[in-house]
Please model this.
Amino acid sequence: MNQTNAVVLVVGATGSIGRHAVREALHQGYRVRALVRDIGRASSLPKQAELVVGDLTIPDTLVAAVDAVDAIVFTHGSTTREADVRDIDYAGVANVLLALRGRPARIALMTAVGTTRPGVPYAAWKRRGERLVRASGNDYTIVRPGWFDYNDADQRRVVLRQGDTAQSGTPADGVIARDQIARVLIDSLSADAANRRTLELAVETGAEQDDLTPDFAALRPDIPGALDGVADGNITPVRSEPRRFQEDLARIGGEPH
Ligand SMILES: NC(=O)c1ccc[n+]([C@@H]2O[C@H](COP(=O)([O-])OP(=O)(O)OC[C@H]3O[C@@H](n4cnc5c(N)ncnc54)[C@H](OP(=O)(O)O)[C@@H]3O)[C@@H](O)[C@H]2O)c1
Model:
């Protein structure tokens, strides 16, 4: 996607990653629309960002947010309570995709390392949000960052992994700075090599790369039509998923999987 005049909607723009994503997208030359619940909380966002008020749990409020957008970056989040992740993290993805009414948009979705862990109810709803993005037919990159800002100052070298095999639920699964997560999300929008990739994101000791294209290009793309990341395990058949997800999938994905 060409940055010039392209409109990027940042979901979760007042959050700890979203604030960086707004700045990074402006820096890369995009027109930025910031979805905020509360204008007061958005006062420290750059003046160049257009503010649009909406609540991810109230679908009608999202229509204006997605109007004429070229790309959407999801950085929102709630707690680790299953009901919160279902009703905010997951529903936010579903409601924004539905608000598009089939219009294409490039998607960058942030979830978390360990999203495919078995027996973790809130993670399962994060994963269902990922599945909706893959099923939506849009171009996308799904980014599962490690633990925010647990990196040491000399750890800036970006590492992209697949398979979500680090599942201790501790920083041993990966660490990364918040500004770097935002950079990877925004970089992915214009990188063909990042399209239809699902990746875990961490850093190791060393300097940050100027260009992540070779790192994106080394990843395997997701299989067309598949709901899960190309290297993901612990796959749940759609028939065993909650009815709510099955209904959203039918509305967003069209064809049954
Ligand atoms: N912490 C970690 O190490 C780590 C690692 C990997 C992944 N993650 C994931 O990162 C996610 C985001 O974390 P964070 O620390 O950046 O969160 P945060 O700072 O609390 O930001 C959350 C954002 O979501 C927005 N939001 C929440 N509910 C909303 C709603 N109903 N409508 C519209 N916007 C809404 C918030 O808006 P308001 O400002 O209006 O509240 C805020 O902008 C978490 O859910 C977690 O799963 C975290």
